Amino acid sequence: MSGAHDRGLAGAVMQLGEPEDGIAMLVLDDPEASVNTLTQAFGEQLAALLDTIESNDSILGVVVSSAKKQSFIVGANIQMVAAIKFAQEAERGAADLAQLFGRIKASKKIFVAAIDGPALGGGFEFALACHAIILSDSPKTMVALPEVQLGLLPGANGLLRVAERADVRVALDLGLTGKNVRPKKAKTLGLVDDVVPAAHLTKVAKAKVHAILEAKKKGNKKKHLDVQTLQADVTRSAIEGNPLGRRVLFSKAREALRKKTRGHYPAPERIVDVLERYASKGFAAGAALEAKLFGELVVSEVSARLVEIFEATTALKKDTGTDRLAPGTELPATTRMTVLGGGLMGGGIAFVTARAGIHVRIRERDEAGRGRALRYVGELVGERVKKKQSTAIDGQADLARVTATTDWSGLKHADIVVEAVFEDLELKQEMLRQVEAIAPAHALFASNTSSIPITQIAANAQRPENVLGMHYFSPVHKMPLLEIIRTAKTSDESVARAVALGKKQGKTVIVVGDGVGFYTSRILAPYLNEAAYLLSEGVAIDVIDDAMVAWGFPVGPLQLLDEVGIDVGSHVGVVMRQAFGDRMIAPAATSKLLDDGRKGRKNGRGLYLYGDAGAKKKGKRQVDTSVYKLVGIEPTAQMAAEDIQMRCGLQMVNEAFHCFGEGILRGPRDGDIGAIFGLGFPPFRGGPFRYVDTIGAAEAYRRIQGFHDRFGARWEPAPLLRELARDGKRSYN
Ligand code: NAI
Prior knowledge:
Bound molecules: 1,4-dihydronicotinamide adenine dinucleotide
Strand order of the largest sheet: 11-10-9-12-13-14-15-16
Structural class: alpha/beta
CATH superfamily of the largest domain: 2-enoyl-CoA Hydratase, Chain A, domain 1
């Protein structure tokens, strides 16, 4: 690397070394950032360096690598993409980058990508344009085209090159899911040429350059330049080569997509369009369509919302959870946790904590509980190993970090105690009393209560500054959100420690103020309530649920009520009513269900059928029609889907504004992320606050006020929403 051509150039994001033995190293290293992304500077510098490479006869080949530790290129720079205002501008940008990558592919010099760490999106597209790709076998190494998750498509011919190297089906799979592909799998699919230990990466990549040069000399171009293409040729021609096979492949893909996206997400459909064009008309035609559609997607509303969510979660990763802690404040590390209650939640919490490398001691009531808790954690570990998400050795290590007792042993060493016993105020207060008597003074006490205000649990606390809520969602190992609840007395340091722990457990963490239902349960309650009102008015259960699924929720509100538990839901409803008055009145239907012994899925009796009787038809759970008689209605009321959607959806939205106005939320960002990640609010609508900013506060207020006129107290508009509507303002500044 001595005497590098561009070394020292301000803002240089890549360096070209002097060739040794005919091979020059092209090393990517953005000095402004911790990871490499594709920026304008990247494009300009790559273009200039390609000129240099082309004109330098002593360079026969180039090995492309990254100086960032275990990270290649994580994709196009998102701020840069998000800042684009016009479709044509994005189209041109994509076409320019694709053309640049095309120059690499067409070059007489041999380019080999040597990848250690993630090569995502544009980073993978860059590698795909090289003549060979060598991956390290590090657990961090992966390739992916995740653009679809941002409402985009890969705009630099990556899809087409995956189709060329592997086949169209692999390209569809990678493009539509955006999933990460690990080295071994990438090799099997024919996406990359070799997988080697990181220490040998450069050496193997250089050898690959020579091997390709050698083969070229012998005139055996095809074999070495396109090994994967050859491998894939046989199966490919069977399907893609004939128009009928093609039509079936693409129409199946479209059908499956429609079912999943309900037409709300244009990007996956455009990905199918591009690959279909490629398969029928070839690379150039596919590429032209790709650039055009990329341009359209970049300026689409859906992509804007998805990019905002990505940016919000990125910002949350850096957020300490409090604005009042001096930056750089050192926090005591959490190395030992005690979990009280090893049931469904406690077991899940123990598992994600052990995975974070922290020792966990579970305390249960009796031997049976102890055994059950350990079995459950064992199952969760086993599942990961089975799915190859962990090695057997790592699984053993995770398991070894979890122990269980029926006494208080281990508590004296705990840095944090998470309480997940039954939902009972007195029991939780008793737990806190015991913990304060035994645990060290610095230990945090976090309750996983789903509905009891933390202030009540901490009412008799000796160290209330150490008490807070850590509200996990079920199942803990799958749900991405953690809602941390602080009381008026919780210290900033305690909040920051809990947030740091949540992040280590892999959660997206929001911090909210204390109050009945905190944030997520609170906005869920009126949403579920309104669905029950619709049912009372004679709207069929599946009509209500279908309307909300069509609006973009993963499941409908009544099915969700069955999942949460009708008993749990109505208990929370009573507490909410006490706290918030008539806004939270539940319809009589709810208590009728409960009086009939219906608790939902857990006892096999709810609004839907379970067991044999509930066998799904066409993937849909069957409604228990006996509910209609029970609540005294005929399910014949005709209601437009949009009316159902507005009534349920705007209840959640209105309550979110109540919460923000009351200071429960630190900002609209946390409200949006909480609703999307905790409750499944449609991501393409951006969350309750972005949604209102999109339709306009005045419009949202007008509709809510309209419902208030019709239905009374439960539609009391949030004062903050009224203000925004009056002043023509948005919830985000
Ligand atoms: P669970 O009934 O599965 O687990 C509770 C466990 O606590 C049982 O294993 C029980 O043996 C144990 N336990 C009871 N008293 C104890 C004591 N004195 N010492 C030690 N262990 C004791 O209940 P689940 O679902 O895990 O809920 C626990 C807490 O988490 C509750 O406060 C609940 O409201 C909350 N929560 C539940 C969610 C869910 O979806 N299930 C979601 C979020 C919070």
